[in-house]
Amino acid sequence: MRLSPLQLLLLLGAWVIPRGLGDRSPLTATAPQLDDEERYSTHMPTHLRCDACRAVAYQMWQHLSEAEAKLHTPESGRRRELSESGYTDVLDRSCSQSWQGYGVREVNQVKHLTGPGLSKGPEPSISVMVTGGPWPIRLSMTCLRYLGEFGEDQIYEAHQQGRGALEALL
Which of 37, 61, 56, 63 is nearest to 139 (CA)? Predict the structure, then answer.
């Protein structure tokens, strides 16, 4: 794997963005310092499992909602349900996606997964997110584990009750 100079800079140290706006100090951010478990383990580290669960729930909810929207017709006036084979395929696809929009960042010395569906309030003015590496595989494995643990039927039933119910289930 070959890293671009920018990726190398982000991984190896601090990134300083000069403001050039008078007496303001420059903003700085450092790449998260990953421990051995975060770097090498094939499983999602324990302290990131809550974030992983929320990411998986969000992606399942998004994929199922998009598939249902394709079935909706203006004259029906209501949301149509997917068939069993339909939601099974959608959930399988949601787990086998690339997960490339997700990564880890450290804010105030606390590491969190970040990506679609994971915003938890005000964003820091600057931060460094490390994507790729083991994170997509770990998220896919987490997703597949939930499919095996709960089954497509139970997950789809929770989805029909809303995103919160799906998150609560997982």
Answer: 56
Distance between CA 170 and CA 164 in Å, rounded? 10
Distance CA 10, CA 30 (A): 7
Token pair for 101: 């929009």
Mean pLDDT of 5-19: 46
**Residues 95, 144 contacting (CB under 8 angstroms):** yes
| Percentage of the residues of the chain whose pLDDT score is greater than 90 | 50
> In the predicted model, is pLDDT for residue 20 greater than 50?
no
Residue labelled with tokens 């039927």: 153
Task: Inform me whether the pLDDT recorded for 108 exceeds 90.
Answer: no
Q: In what side-by-side order are the strands of the sheet with 110-114?
A: 110-114, 103-107, 129-131
For residue 64, CA distances in Å to 58, 61, 74, 98, 137 come to 10, 5, 19, 17, 21
Query: What's this model's pTM, rounded to 2 decimal places?
Result: 0.77
Please check the confidence at residue 19 and state whether its pLDDT lies above 90: no
d(CA 89, CA 168): 22
Instruction: List the beta bridge partners of residue 66.
Output: none
